[in-house]
Design a protein that fits this description.
Length: 294
Amino acid sequence: MASPYATQPPPPPYSPMQPIATAPAPGGFAMPQPGMPMQPPSMSMQPPGMPMQPPGMLKQQPDMPILSQGGWLPPSTNCPPGLEYLMALDHLFVHQKVELIEAFVGFETKNKYSVMNVRGEPVYYVAEESGICGRLCLGASRSCEFQVIDGTRREVLRMFRPFRCHSCCFPCCLQELEVYSGDTLLGSVTQDWTLWRPSFSVRNASGDTVLTIKGPWLRCCVEVAFKVKSADGHHTVGVIQKQWSGFGREFFTDADNFGISFPLDLDVKMKAVLLGACLLIDFMYFEGQNNNNL
């Protein structure tokens, strides 16, 4: 009986004509066999079934921006947290909450707003943060902050408005508002110096003008529209419209309703800045109980 530990015969010598079985490498590609030419370095291996790129065709760079017909960039894939819902919207409605103390006593209170979609569903809530001395002494010109939260009470935006004069005789002290997501600046709204018609510039984080806002020549109508235009001012792409709230609300309170429309493919950051522009317009022209700024 042969021992299981008997010495095995040596393998036959290698012959160049004898094929060598090769195991596929990770990923499904077979390793090159001895004697076979290596693949040229200019040709890249592709998975089975994928067509080869025709020679001479330039591959499109994923980081190359493509301008839309309106002149702005398409929605960015790097969306700030909490603003994903705005990517699918082209309308917003801003409803200011009626403060009973302000209506009966005349004491200026902190403003609160509800931001809704076209179906009337709440999207965000806006709360003003300001000091009592600023509200009593400076009125609608007071410096303040706006905290924007979603339905889970998570802060998605914070807006800063410093103290500025309303007079058009001081071009060095014009109104402005900055919009932040956390510590990241998304953009700003700055008032343009003009003698008659209200004008604003909507800027991105780099300070470049992306959109402009032109107000009406007369603001004594029931519904007042501020047109949102392209950066060159030649094309109207949206509107910020102050809507009639009823005789009781208009006469006894300064609670206002606004509608905002903008292009669907507008960058979500600029949509957030337009929301800030709506709040700034409300403070500048419609915050006084008797609308003294009109």
